[in-house]
Design goal:
This protein is an alpha+beta fold. It has a domain of 81 residues: Arc Repressor Mutant, subunit A (Orthogonal Bundle). Strands 4, 5, 6 and 7 form a four-stranded antiparallel sheet that branches. Strands 1-3-2 form a three-stranded antiparallel sheet. The longest helix has 16 residues.
């Protein structure tokens, strides 16, 4: 079943496929398979409006490469890689270069992990406490709470159009003197 779902996601191309379509096609067990694929980093899930879309990692990278603002981030990452004397085969295609840079650039890697944590629970209202995301990311990336909240603040500030934050909670990010302890994709 996992192979069939992965094939269906891959065939959706750069547009991705709605998670609900996968559930209708493959049944309720589809959610468990999707969670496994997310954990294996074979797929990427992003919320657009009120729907969750699913891509293979390759298709998502190609989709990102079509967005000019995201291309700038990737180009900066490639420049950083070259400055660290990491060379890539000049004959390799752009997609391979982008994949290497995505794996090596902490900001993009953090954003992808942050988005995965936001979409993984599939809550109906979409709000997630920063503390839950922090626990998952600090454990997987081996970073401190302070580093997490610094990166999360920068991420939310840079991508205001993608995230909505809500005040409250015991921990979170400080904006204009208020503690914002909850976040969701817009």
């Amino acid at each position: 079943m996992e192979a069939k779902i992965l094939k269906k996601i891959s065939s959706s191309g750069l547009d991705g496929i709605k998670r609900i379509i996968l559930k209708k096609t493959f049944g309720k067990d589809c959610d468990n398979v999707l969670k496994n694929l997310i954990e294996q980093k074979q797929i990427f899930v992003e919320k657009k409006g009120s729907a969750y879309y699913v891509w293979t990692q390759e298709n998502y990278v190609s989709k990102l490469s079509q967005d000019k603002s995201k291309i700038k981030i990737i180009e900066n990452g490639i420049t950083k890689l070259e400055s660290k004397n990491i060379t890539t085969n000049r004959n390799s295609n752009l997609q391979n270069t982008i994949q290497i840079s995505l794996q090596a650039i902490p900001d993009i890697d953090f954003k992808m992990e942050f988005d995965r944590c936001l979409t993984a629970p599939y809550t109906s209202i979409g709000w997630m406490p920063f503390s839950q995301i922090r626990k998952k990311i600090c454990e997987s990336k081996n970073i401190s709470s302070d580093q997490f909240y610094n990166l999360a603040s920068e991420l939310v500030e840079r991508h205001r159009e993608n995230y909505e934050i809500s005040s409250g909670g015991k921990e979170g990010i400080m904006i204009r003197g208020l503690m914002h302890g909850f976040v969701r994709n817009v």
